[in-house]
Every structure is written in C-alpha cells, then in structure tokens.
Amino acid sequence: MTAHRILVIDDEAGVRDALKQVLAYEGHDVRVAGSGGEGLTLYPEFRPHLVFLDVKMAGLDGLDTLTRLRDVDPAATVVMISGHGTIATAVEATQRGAFDFLEKPLDSDRLLVTVRNALNQAVLATTVQRFQEAADEQHAMVGGSPALHGVRAMIDKVAPTPARVLITGENGTGKELVARAIHAASPRAQRPFIEVNCAAIPSELIESELFGHMKGSFTGAFADRPGKFELADGGTLFLDEIGDLSLSAQAKMLRVLQEGEVTRVGGSKALRVDVRVLAATNKDLEAEIAAGRFREDLLYRLNVVPIVVPPLRERRDDIPELVAHFSAAIAGSAAMPTRQFEPAAVERLQRRGWPGNVRELRNAVERLMILAPGKSVTAADVDRILTGSMEVAPASGPGGDDPFTAPTFEVFKQEAERVFLTARLREHDWNVSETARALEMPRSNLYKKIERYGLTREPS
After folding, report:
1. SS3 333
2. pLDDT tens digit string along 72-121?
3. How many of the other CB atoms lie within 10 Å of CB of 119?
4. What does the alpha-carbon distance between residue 49 and residue 78 come to, in Å, rounded to a whole number?
5. Which domains are seen in the chain, by residue range?
6. Which of 36, 25, 32, 33 has the alpha carbon at shortest distance from 3?
7. Counting CB atoms within 10 angstroms of each CB, which of 169, 202, 238, 378 has the fewest?
C-alpha cells in the first residue's frame, strides 16, 4: 500500500494512540494532535492527505476546526469521528465539507474501508486539479507585448457581458485561445464550452451537427441526437471558421440567434436554448458578403464586439516567452529532457516571418528540441534544422530574413508574393490544383511562380 500522510485530531489520548497504531501498521505516516488549535497549527506543515477529526473537544470543537481547516485548504479531506453522534451533527459536518462521519467505538474494518475511499477521492481530486492546470496551461495566452495587451483588455471588457464576439485573425494566431479566455472570465465559466469547426464538417452534416436531428430524418440518423446548441445550453458555443458555413445553415443559425430557439433536423418542436455565441474566421466576411457567400444580416448578429488577434510578426517581443513556454510544455508532455534555447537561437527565431504564426512557432520549437544534438538549442541549430521551411526570404536574397527590410519596393513585392504563395501552398498541403483554384489563378501561372521562387515542400 502506498504511504499517505494522515493527521488525527482528538482530545482523547487512547483514541489517538489506537488510530495511530492501526494506520501506521497499514504503512501510513501518522501524526496526532490533542486539540483543534494544535491540529490547525500542524496541518500546513504536515500537509496530510487525510484528517480524522473528533467532533466533541474542549476549547475549539470539531465542527469549528473543520470550518477553519477548509478555509486553510478547500480541498482538505476530513473524516469526522464522535462518541455522541447524531444525524443532525452528521448532516452539519457534511454541509461543512466532511467526507464521512464515523461513530466511536471505531470498527477497524469500516475504518480501513473509509481510509481507502477517502484517499482514493483525495488522489482523484488531485489528478483532476492537475489535468485542469495542464488544460489551463495549454490554453494560456502567453506574452506581454502591447498588441497582446490590447487583446486582453478587450477580453476583460467583453467577457462579463452576454455580447456576441467575432474574433478575426490569420491561421495559427490563437483565436480559440481568445474564445476560451472570454468563456473562462464570463459568468458562464462553470458551464459547457463547446467548439465547432465549421470548415471540418461536411456541408450536408453541418445542420445536424449544430442543431441536432431526429431519428429517421436522413440516412444514417438511427437515433435522436442533440446538436451543439443544445449541448452548450447555459454555456458558450464557439463557432470556428464561421466563414465556411453553408448558406442554408447560415439562415437557420440566424433564426436561432434571433429567437433563442433551435429545431432539430426532421423535428417540429422548437427547443429554448440559452447560449452565448462566439465566432471566429480568417476570412474577410465583407468580401464573402459581396461574393454572395455570407449573409450580411448574420454578420451583424455575430459581430457585436470585434476582436482582431494580431499575427506573430506584429508581436515579435513575445517570441522569447513563447519559446520558453512551449519548450517547457513539450518537455513535460512528451517526457523529453528540457532544452534551453540560447539567446542567439531565440534572436534567430524572432527574425523570422512566421506565416503560420504561433502554431508554426510551436512546431518549430518541438522540431528543434527533437533534432538539436546538444544539451541546448543554438543559433546554428536554428539555421540548419529550419533552413528552407520557414524563412521569410532566403538568407542570400536581397530581402534578407524579412521582406520589410527589402531595399526597394519591387524587391519587397517579390518577397511578399513568395511568402504568400508558400503559405497558401502549405494550407492546401502543397496541392497545386487546389491552391490555384482557391487563389482563382490559372494553374500554369502558379507553376511558373513556384519555379521562379524555387518553392519546395519542406520535409515532414
């Protein structure tokens, strides 16, 4: 059995000694206190996993001691013991946060079962807390640049309100992190946060995904199923890539936003939903409206408060902190040794353009941690391992590492075009036909530009 720390607080020496003997025999580290005050003094130093606390004690009684223990540590696991137990006392102890209530004389079998159950709960609570801390760390907005400070200020203003928010920005800038930060700082923080990537769901299924469906409403609908709006009831629904939503789904969503009611596909009954909608896109929705691909009235419904997430090239000062954050997180999650990034290596990373933004930086940090041969990541490692994959411009080119350093406007245009085409090709997994179609460019022209700029797919 794993040894745990157990504190016994009881003013009867016989009870203290008996409990200590039984629990120590089971392999636990046991300490005892003869009063509530002594127990409160010992608790922060000993940090027990479990406390046995007598109800009736001279001076500070057990219930008041329980309250003070929970003030010191809201996660404290406490089992109350009493020779004069009543239902009312047990109920009050439970209301004050006690895990269980045992009557004296203590039965050793029940005692050990209670110890096992209480310690299992304590371990589970600790594990849940660690997972929550890890999730919070994963979704943290890292950096102190003025650009990011402006985003945080907007989040602080809008989060407490029920207003809908439209989050815009390039791919990889962290639009989901902004949505999660709004939810976490809102009155709905304890309710569900449901995310839907509108671009990842086939158009024929998006309405079922969002609004739910009834059994038999279409082929494959074998049972009634709630949609994301119903699942997010009372909480927040984050609609990522809203610009890719079909027109028919846009019309139905507009009705939901207007009326606060959702009707499942194939159903006739409208269901009330209380959902705060946050939306995000990397598209120019005004241009999508002009092209007839997005409803103007839906944009007005979604865009109550706009938040623009800056690209990484506009917050280069955050890169050192992001590198440290990502390297620590990667080392922890992948059981890899922690790798220090030398200042010159970080400076090299700051000079890059990062068309894939923060997401691309994280991938680069992970690649460097895996492939760099030494104990630390050097500038030479950055140049060798990342060469050709993420440079804004070739090192030998006239524009240097950054198109904004180009000596002439003509050179700037060429370098900017090279960066733009590389990013679009990467988005379409270097499928030239798909990229050309998305850019509304003849495929032959795109091939010529690929050849002109020497664009090649980076190794995976």
Report:
1. helix
2. 888 889 999 987 767 788 888 888 888 988 888 888 888 999 998 888 88
3. 18
4. 9
5. 5-132 (3.40.50.2300), 149-310 (3.40.50.300), 312-390 (1.10.8.60), 393-460 (1.10.10.60)
6. 25
7. 202
DSSP codes of every residue in 160-221: TS---EEEE--TTS-HHHHHHHHHHTSTTTTS-EEEEETTTS-HHHHHHHHH-B-TTSSTT-
- Give 383-414 pLDDT, tens digit per residue: 888 864 444 434 333 334 456 665 567 667 77
DSSP assignment of 102-121, as one string? EESSPPHHHHHHHHHHHHHH
Which of 71, 87, 69, 57 lies closest to 79 in space, CA to CA?
A: 69
- Dist CA 404 CA 415 (whole Å): 9
**DSSP strands (E only) in 273-396:** 276-281, 305-308, 340-341, 376-377
Alpha carbon distance 198, 206 (integer Å):
7
Burial class (CB in 10 A: 0-12, 13-18, 19+), 59: exposed
